[in-house]
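subagent[fold] <- orchestrator: predict structure for attached chain, return tokens only, no commentary.
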Amino acid sequence: MAAEPAKTGPEQHARLRGKCPICGGLSEQKYAPFCSRRCADVDLSRWLRGAYAIPDNAESEDGGEEGTGGAPTPDELASKE
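subagent[fold] -> orchestrator:
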């Protein structure tokens, strides 16, 4: 029994490309994983504004709670004024 050649039609190509995480359109290789420069820029803007965040529930390196010591937060500075 001979192995069938790999499918390379438009359906297979579209499936391999995936969807753009911003708009849901088909991603383009040039802008992967996005579909366009616009969607790539939207994603970059979200990162730079801090819209994406990775939650951190771990203890600090010294074993204490997060937020103790170090520089004051903006809220702490505002309450001192």
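orchestrator: received. Logging for downstream: Residues 37-49 form the longest helix (13 residues). The helical segments are 10-17, 37-49, 74-80.
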